[in-house]
Specification:
Length: 210
C-alpha cells in the first residue's frame, strides 16, 4: 500500500496525459473527417480547387489518405504535375498499394507521358498479377501501337480470368484479326455477341467475315 501511495501522483499524471492525448487525437480526427466531408461536397459541385484547398488546411505529408485525395483533386483541377507529386507521396507511403498507381496514370495520360502510364500498369501487374483492369488497359495501349503480340498476351490473360466478358472477348478477337488468326477472331466475336447481342464492335468485326 505504501508503494501505491508513493506512486499515486505519477499514476494520476500518466492518466491525465493519456486522457489529454485522447482528446487531442479526437479533435484532430474530427477536423480531418470534417475536412474530407467538406471536400467531397465541394468536389460534387465542381469546385475542385476549393476541395483541394480544404484538404491543404489539414495537410500531413505522412497521411496516405490526404495525399491520395489531393492527387485526385489536383488532377481534376488540371494541376497535373502537382497531382503526380501527391500520388508519388502516396506510393512512397504505401508501396504495395495499387490505387495511387492507378491514380498516377490519369495526370500522366493527360500530359501524354505514355511511358509513365505503361510503367505504372506494369508495376500494378507485378504487385497484383491477375489485375484485369491494368492488363486490359495496357493491352489497349499496345493494340493502339500495333504491338499485337504483346496485346494478345495481355488480352488472353484477361479472357482466361473472365471468359464471358464482352470487352475482353472483343479486344482479343480484334487482336487475333490483326494477326490474321481469322478462325479465332470469328469465334471470339461470336462469343462476345452472346454476352451483348447488340455490341457494335463485335458486330462490326463479325461482318468482316461475310
Amino acid at each position: 500500500m505504501e508503494i501505491l501511495k508513493r506512486y499515486t501522483p505519477v499514476i494520476i499524471a500518466a492518466l491525465f496525459l493519456v486522457i489529454s492525448a485522447g482528446k487531442i487525437s479526437g479533435q484532430s480526427f474530427t477536423e480531418k473527417k470534417d475536412a474530407f466531408q467538406k471536400s467531397y461536397i465541394q468536389e460534387a459541385t465542381g469546385d475542385y480547387s476549393g476541395a483541394a484547398n480544404t484538404l491543404r488546411e489539414i495537410y500531413d505529408e505522412n497521411s496516405y489518405e490526404v495525399n491520395l485525395r489531393l492527387g485526385w483533386l489536383t488532377y481534376l483541377s488540371g494541376s497535373f504535375n502537382e497531382s503526380k507529386a501527391y500520388y508519388n507521396k502516396s506510393i512512397a507511403l504505401m508501396p504495395y498499394a495499387v490505387e495511387p498507381r492507378f491514380g498516377y496514370v490519369y495526370p500522366s495520360a493527360a500530359m501524354g507521358n505514355w511511358s509513365e502510364v505503361i510503367r505504372q500498369y506494369e508495376k500494378i501487374i507485378e504487385i497484383t498479377p491477375n489485375n484485369s483492369i491494368a492488363m486490359h488497359r495496357l493491352g489497349l495501349i499496345y493494340y493502339g501501337r500495333e504491338n499485337y503480340e504483346e496485346s494478345l498476351r495481355l488480352f488472353e490473360k484477361v479472357v482466361n480470368l473472365y471468359p464471358f466478358d464482352y470487352d475482353a472477348l472483343t479486344m482479343l478477337a480484334w487482336t487475333h484479326y490483326r494477326l490474321n488468326n481469322m478462325r479465332e477472331a470469328r469465334i471470339l466475336f461470336q462469343k462476345a455477341l452472346l454476352n451483348t447481342p447488340n455490341g457494335t464492335s463485335a458486330i462490326e468485326g463479325l461482318e468482316l467475315f461475310k
